[in-house]
Amino acid sequence: MDVPCARVRPAKGEATRSRLADADLIDDEYEITVEDGWLYIPVVDEKAAATALESASDRDHDIVTFDPPARHTQTTPEDVLGWEPSYERLGEAALLEEDDDERAAEIARAIVESDLPLETVLNKASKIKGETRIRDWDVLEGEGTTVVHREYGCTFELDLAAMYFSPRLATERHRVAEQVEPGERAFDMFAGVGPFVIPLAKRGAECVGVDINEAAIEYLERNATTNGVADHVTTHCADVREIAPEYEGWADRIVMNLPHSADEFLESAVTIAGDRCTLHYYDIQHEDDPFGPGEHAIQEAAAPEYDVTVETRRTVRSYAPHELNVCLDVVLERLES
């Protein structure tokens, strides 16, 4: 079976393996293999592995496809339980959504007893609540709710009990980051711990991140330092509607990832937008018309100052029965007065 692998000379193997392990990119389902003088390290994401290795001081590696042997010795939670549990991985944490406390505890023990590199198991104890969109968690295994998550060469420390974060949007965040050109000015209106801000800054953008959650902003600043982009990131702990006038006409790109109520902030987005600005607008709507309400709201907010062009209509994921989480990539072009 062809599997993406980092290929490197054995003498450089440990340094490469460590770099990939730090980025949580090694595919544990396959063995690391030596063949014909090369070491092959299976990876879970070809592009992310290339990104994680691109800053290495030596260039004695590349990403290739290879047929490594499957790893048969790993004990999984399913092996321990005799049935397959449902959980989500975030860094070295497993996230459960179990109403039965005994079942949740059983799954947690199985995860810890398995060979998976998971040290913390948390169970969702409430729905998302409040304007900061946080929830309660029961700590079943481990020391607390602080975790370190890695995606596409970026590292994010966060406290799940104090801020909102979704690992399910990793691909979407990478899609947006790949559009960024060095020197752009990017504004994230609901920045959280920086899952958009950090990769955009690493692509060479000058970034502003705003969030009403003080804890999230503290972690954003910490993550900017960890990822080496602190000099390119400015943060504000505030309602973005209060900050917008300070950045009138500033942005080349705006991220609006507040799907349930982003339309309430479109007036501020128009204030922040420069003469030509790309808007990434996230929404949750019924599957019968997932894009129409957002397009209408943007047109209404931008008129008559801007010409509005929808470049991408994208379904990010299913959110609930008959409801879709979608993104509109929209270009605002200022009209001559």
TrEMBL record:
This is Class I SAM-dependent methyltransferase family protein. Keywords: Cytoplasm, Methyltransferase, S-adenosyl-L-methionine, Transferase, tRNA processing. It comes from Natronosalvus hydrolyticus. One of its GO terms (cellular component) is cytoplasm. Residues 87-334 form the SAM-dependent methyltransferase TRM5/TYW2-type domain. One of its GO terms (molecular function) is tRNA methyltransferase activity. The lineage of its organism: Archaea, Methanobacteriati, Methanobacteriota, Stenosarchaea group, Halobacteria. One of its GO terms (biological process) is tRNA N1-guanine methylation. PANTHER family: TRNA (GUANINE(37)-N1)-METHYLTRANSFERASE, TRNA METHYLTRANSFERASE. It comes from the Archaea.
